[in-house]
């Protein structure tokens, strides 16, 4: 549970901490460089001020006054003549000071020049400013002990270290909170997938965010709902098929036992044998349709499309099915222009319409009319089958193409259906890439429309 939040937290911490270290380093370098520049600039300005005083009031008193001023400050001054001879100094002359004074000077600007800026390894930083009076010409050297600068940098480093540690702690706390917040829905999804793997499909993921996590949670929820639906359908299917197989087998066994009796008349024996034959046919039809559905589910069948006249196919279909309509005293009306052709599998086309017409006959009372009408609209073929039967309740319409689903379950055996016909029709319609629509009103009839888009001529 904590692994993913720890991984996310460590990843974010490493990335952000690396960025912070780089930014802190750049900022430190910038501030340190600015502070050194300020110290050097202040040293140059101090030398320029002494130069201005010397040029205005050059005398022994002024020179001593300048030296005395520097004795009380953190900087030191050395005034030399043009040849480098020391006129006065506010500090003892060290070897480094002596070397800087004796160094060759070329084109030193009046505004002053930095002659030593290495504060890390040298004991002094230094500047030189030339002066010129009517009496004397020379140079004003300014020196500052680098220990002062180093102490300043040490304080700066200390402040940056404290700020860095504080920033790292605050960053770690924020990232810990954020990583747990980000990982929480992932942990829930992981637990949900565990439940799915164990066969528990009744999960609820309430992640309503509009980001990728929300989309992933929605996908898992839809998968769970579909698996739960499939599980329910499978259980219902197994229950239904067990019932459908057990019922004819029970009839067959029972009537076979009765037909074996010695004292049974020939007429009664034939009656019982006919019942057995009827149940055998029903069982054969059920098994055949189950095999066909299995083939449809596994795509173990092929659709062989070809162009053929719809009217010719309908004549062939009605010739086979018309006797059953006459027997039920139902009028079958076929309306189809002669010039309409359709691109379809002729065998499957006949199977679709036969199933739908047979279904209309079963659920229509005597003396009613069933109409099969074909129209050609905008390159589409629409085949509508309208009956005047009992109709389908609105709540049942979405489920009539499911396997073994029956609107009137109490009359299922009286009507002789297996509950698989419409399921086969739906699969065949989808295999042709067609559409099927159902409109129905209770006690007024049902209209089922097949729409073959762009497959007519």
TrEMBL record:
Its main location: membrane. It holds the Pfam family HisKA. InterPro entries: HAMP_dom (IPR003660), HATPase_C_sf (IPR036890), HATPase_dom (IPR003594), His_kinase_dom (IPR005467), HisK_dim/P_dom (IPR003661), HisK_dim/P_sf (IPR036097), HssS/ArlS-like (IPR050398), Sig_transdc_His_kin-like_C (IPR004358). The keyword Transmembrane helix applies. It is a multi-pass membrane protein. The chain crosses the membrane at residues 6-27, 160-183. It is found in: Cell membrane. It comes from Siminovitchia thermophila. It catalyses: ATP + protein L-histidine = ADP + protein N-phospho-L-histidine. The keyword Transmembrane applies. Residues 180-232 form the HAMP domain. PROSITE patterns: HAMP, HIS_KIN. Keywords: ATP-binding, Cell membrane, Coiled coil, Kinase, Membrane, Nucleotide-binding, Phosphoprotein, Transferase, Transmembrane, Transmembrane helix, Two-component regulatory system. Residues 240-456 form the Histidine kinase domain. Residues 213-240 form a coiled coil. One of its GO terms (molecular function) is kinase activity. This is histidine kinase. The lineage of its organism: Bacteria, Bacillati, Bacillota, Bacilli, Bacillales.
